[in-house]
Amino acid sequence: MTVDQPARLAPQNAAPRPERDIDLYRRAVGTLRAALPPGWTIASAKARTLVDAPERLTVTAPSGEVASFSVITARGVLAGDVARFADSLSDSDLAFVCARYLSEPVRRQLDARGLSYADATGNAALSAPRPAIWVRDRGADADPWRGPGRPPAQLTGDPAARVVRALADFSGQLTVPELVKLSGASTGATYRVVETLAERELLERIPRGPITRVRWQAMLRAWSSDSSFRDCQALSFHSPGGIDAVLDALARQQDLVYAVTGSAAAAAFTEYAPLQSLQIYADDAEALGDALGLRPVEDGANVVIATPRSPVVFERTGTHSGARAVAPAQACADLLSGGGRQPDEAAHLLAWLAEHEQQWRIPVA
């Protein structure tokens, strides 16, 4: 038996958000009952408590054949949780995942693993070999319980920069409270950025538990496309003495806050080609240009000094030719969004970083 329900628009006024496991389960079963044709029935084993969901769900065909599913409830499900769900089952067991909302990437992962599911917005899929059944229904394409004023799922602004940099700079499992301390972002903003990264399948996290995996290369690419050096307010300069003279002057600079990025920062780890220009972050771009004796220009610049949108660019810095340089993750993101040969430099740096993670990522104790 196959039923494929047409897509529905997300409800304009969402029902109250389900909080208990039993509420998630009841919403899910309600969606399935509405999708099943006459003659098919759903039954549940007795729950352990009034707030728990039943441990098993049974679906009975008109012929009397029964399909039994292990019930898994979770208020939030990330794409990385799906493998854990599947691994917890025996080879012959079927699973039915109930959740508050299942994003499209998570639904794809559930489908790929052959797990049935339903969320409280009406997204549902149920399948079994005996009795032969395949049911799908479409609910909301966005979480209707996301709070008002929630930022779009983009990695822009200071909180995203802080969280992305912390996840790239540090290695090992991290709880969100630990990530808050490492990043310096607020608790609410950190949770929002983590959710955005999870929705985009850039990290994996145990529900209400630690972040277990970060796809840091893909994360840096995504971050660089949403926020880049070129988006910052910047001043263009020409150095008559060339790039080496600027680096020498920066090495002697003690008073102003700055950090070189892009090609120069990458060169601290792996050489790609001789430097043609210099990109610098500075707290006061004009003051740094004056201190270095640079000449403001509109064309023919070989030095660009930008005011960063997040002060995280000045954290966990290193050195290149004696000058302060941004962390490798920051340099890589800025190269990825650059022009000319910079994307090729970024690919070269990414390859080096992937082969030498222990040399630049800081283990979390």
Could you characterize the architecture of this molecule?
By secondary structure, the protein is α/β, with parallel strands linked by helices. It has three domains: 2-137; 157-226, Orthogonal Bundle (Arc Repressor Mutant, subunit A); 229-347 and 355-363, no CATH class. Helices cover 35% and strands 23% of the residues. The chain contains 13 helices and 19 strands. It has helices spanning 21-35, 79-87, 104-113, 157-169, 176-183, 187-199, 216-226, 243-251, 262-266, 285-291, 328-336, 342-355, 357-360, and strands at 2-4, 41-44, 56-60, 66-76, 94-101, 116-119, 124-128, 133-137, 170-171, 203-205, 211-214, 233-238, 258-261, 278-282, 295-296, 303-307, 318-320, 323-325, 362-363. Strands 1-8-7-6-5-4-3-2 form an eight-stranded mixed beta sheet, with helices on both faces. Strands 13-14-16-12-15 form a five-stranded mixed beta sheet. Helix 2 (79-87) links the parallel strand 4 and strand 5 (94-101). It is elongated and about 85 Å long. The termini are far apart.
How is this fold's topology laid out?
Layout: E1 2-4, H1 21-35, E2 41-44, E3 56-60, E4 66-76, H2 79-87, E5 94-101, H3 104-113, E6 116-119, E7 124-128, E8 133-137, H4 157-169, E9 170-171, H5 176-183, H6 187-199, E10 203-205, E11 211-214, H7 216-226, E12 233-238, H8 243-251, E13 258-261, H9 262-266, E14 278-282, H10 285-291, E15 295-296, E16 303-307, E17 318-320, E18 323-325, H11 328-336, H12 342-355, H13 357-360, E19 362-363
Parallel strand pairs: 1-8, 4-5, 5-6, 9-19, 14-16
Antiparallel strand pairs: 2-3, 3-4, 6-7, 7-8, 10-11, 12-15, 12-16, 13-14, 17-18
